[in-house]
Write a structure and sequence with these properties.
heterodimer, A: 421 residues, alpha/beta, Rossmann fold, GMP Synthetase, Chain A, domain 3, 2 domains, eight-stranded mixed sheet, four-stranded mixed sheet, 23% strand, B: 144 residues, alpha+beta, VC0802-like, six-stranded antiparallel sheet
Chain lengths: 421, 144
């Protein structure tokens, strides 16, 4: 499809979406208040005239407040886990299920899977969208699908070996567990060749580990229930950024603090307007996930990619007006060989009411020469590397090995000591 | 004596600049019955390096590493100097005239006279120059 054809399709689908949301009281009131009608949207730029939709809005609409069709046309309901408060409810018409499984089928085809593959779907098959989403997507490709679910890991490994499973879908953490159990059982899973991992953030180090231990090529899968579920973005065989199906999702990256759109190469919050959702259309949905549009084209020839995800908006710090994500700091520090695995970030406001960020790091033993000058050089190198990437001056404190807190579970590496002034 | 015998292993310990760190190092050395002949602290922003000449450097290294410290050995030389005005000038100018740079230095003065500990950029040349000028260098064995 030519770029102008795609844009034309996006625009007409955006207008349809705006018409569809008129059946949702929340949107009817909001758009009336903003004075925006479908016919006002003449170009994709006009998208910026539309208000955002937030997770909290969906929670407030519990349970069916965001359905744009009567329940008689809703053929399935999924919910998000709802770790805080009520779960978010999502509904699908028959057409939605068809389009959703098409998107997943496209992704699986993109990484080379065909009707000759045997697909083990090792995620929860219940209210979680990742289970049934991949089930029907893989069936649509024509693969032989095993709705394996989670648990009974030894049995899962026997199935991989006995049924000649070639592709597996699960969370990266469960994949790691599978690898361990397979090693204990003495199987090197010779039939497996593709791993599709999603629903949790995972690093390139984990990717290398999983590829080595499971003998697969590992692909990152991104989605969220509010946008159907998995299938929103997916890696191609280049394994360098995720492709989005632009005919079905309109993508923006915004500065989460100001709501301004950001250009390629600028990190911010992913905002998605789904274009083909019927039961639950949404406008400018703020995902809370941090990524950026990649500047260059993918060698595979597909359309514009987004970078792998690097954290949540909720974790974002604003230092002297600049947005900083702890995951960015982590990424920079872990790429420096002299720096240990742990770090802490302290944010203070000094006597001139300026924000100060101080990062504590441990120097790895093998990089301690005994010379103060060498330590000062390491300290300067860390300061310089952080400044170049964050465009922010930070103080770096070298601390003794083993002195930083070690976290089990979710790490709390940021201490914001600023008080309101 | 070969020049190598005059190379002395100083232990260098990375330490944060906060109360109690020197005490922690000193206490560990006491427990290992390690005696300190000379020591100095060099500080930068927020951290420093504690440098010490001790009678049992390997034992000190092992214990401090076990306690979690970043420890390294650094090669230094020790020159006996005259404990009177001009003693330091004599040694420093001798090296300076030869173009040998002193990266850092510290000294102690005991019953056996004054000793200058030097970290230089070219230790072999420094040893040769000092010995040929008839000055006395302390051997590593002198610190055992």
């Amino acid at each position: 499809m030519r770029p102008d054809e795609l844009e034309h399709l996006q625009l007409s689908r955006l207008r349809e979406t705006i018409e569809r949301v008129q059946h949702v009281p929340f949107y009817r009131d909001l758009l009336a208040q903003e004075g925006v009608r479908a016919e006002d949207i003449r170009t994709l730029e006009d998208l910026q005239r539309l208000p955002f939709t937030r997770k909290q809005d969906l929670r407030d609409g519990y349970p069916f407040g965001f359905f744009a069709v009567p329940l008689s046309r809703v053929v399935r309901i999924h919910t998000t886990s709802g770790t805080t408060g009520k779960p978010t409810v999502v509904g699908y018409t028959r057409g939605d299920l068809d389009r959703w499984s098409d998107l997943i089928a496209r992704n699986l085809t993109m990484v080379g899977l065909t009707e000759n593959d045997v697909f083990q779907n090792a995620v929860n098959m219940g209210m979680f969208t990742g289970g049934l989403g991949f089930h029907y997507g893989a069936e649509k490709v024509g693969m032989t699908v095993l709705p394996a679910g989670t648990g009974n890991t030894r049995r899962q490994i026997e199935m991989i070996d006995d049924f000649g499973v070639t592709a597996i879908h699960c969370t990266p953490s469960y994949a790691m567990h599978l690898a361990e159990v397979a090693e204990e059982m003495g199987s090197d899973l010779p039939s497996l060749k593709v791993g599709v991992f999603g629903a949790e953030p995972w690093s390139d180090a984990t990717r290398n580990d999983l590829q080595d231990r499971l003998g697969v090529t590992a692909y990152d899968s991104y989605g969220l229930s509010e946008l159907f579920g998995p299938g929103v973005a997916f890696e191609c065989p280049e394994q360098d950024g995720l492709h989005i199906w632009h005919d079905s999702y309109l993508v923006e990256i915004i500065d989460p603090a100001t709501g301004e759109q950001l250009g390629p190469g600028e990190r911010g919050e992913l905002v998605v307007t789904p274009l083909v959702k019927e039961a639950m259309p949404l406008i400018r949905y703020r995902t809370g996930d941090i990524t950026m549009l990649l500047e260059d084209d993918c060698p595979c020839g597909r359309t514009r990619r987004i970078a792998r995800f690097s954290g949540r908006v909720d974790d974002m710090l604003i230092i002297r007006g600049i947005n900083v994500f702890p995951s960015q700091i982590e990424h920079i520090l872990m790429a420096l060989p002299e720096v240990g695995d742990q770090f802490m970030v302290y944010v203070d406001r000094n006597e001139h009411h300026l924000d100060e960020m101080t990062i504590h790091v441990e120097v790895k033993r093998q990089y301690f020469s005994g010379e103060l000058a060498d330590l000062a050089r390491i300290q300067q190198k860390i300061v310089r590397t952080l400044r170049d990437t964050l465009e922010l001056r930070t103080a770096v404190q070298l601390v003794e090995p083993g002195s930083l807190p070690r976290f089990e579970g979710k790490a709390r590496r940021v201490v914001d000591r600023r008080t309101n002034v | 004596m070969t020049p190598d015998e005059f190379i002395i292993r100083q232990i260098s310990v990375f330490s944060e600049n906060r109360p109690g760190r020197l005490a922690a190092i000193a206490h560990a050395l006491e427990e290992e019955r390690v005696n300190i002949f000379a020591f100095s602290i060099a500080e930068a922003s927020g951290f420093g390096v504690v440098r010490a000449l001790v009678d049992k450097p390997e034992k000190a290294h092992a214990r401090l590493t076990e306690d979690g410290f970043n420890v390294a050995f650094t090669d230094v030389i020790a020159v006996r100097m005259r404990d009177e005005p001009g003693g330091l000038y004599e040694v420093a100018s001798m090296l300076g005239d030869t173009g040998i740079n002193i990266e850092y230095s510290y000294a102690y003065s005991g019953p056996a006279g004054a000793v200058l500990i030097l970290r230089v950029d070219r230790p072999a040349e420094a040893i040769e120059r000092i010995l040929s000028a008839g000055k006395e260098l302390l051997s590593a064995a002198a610190f055992r």
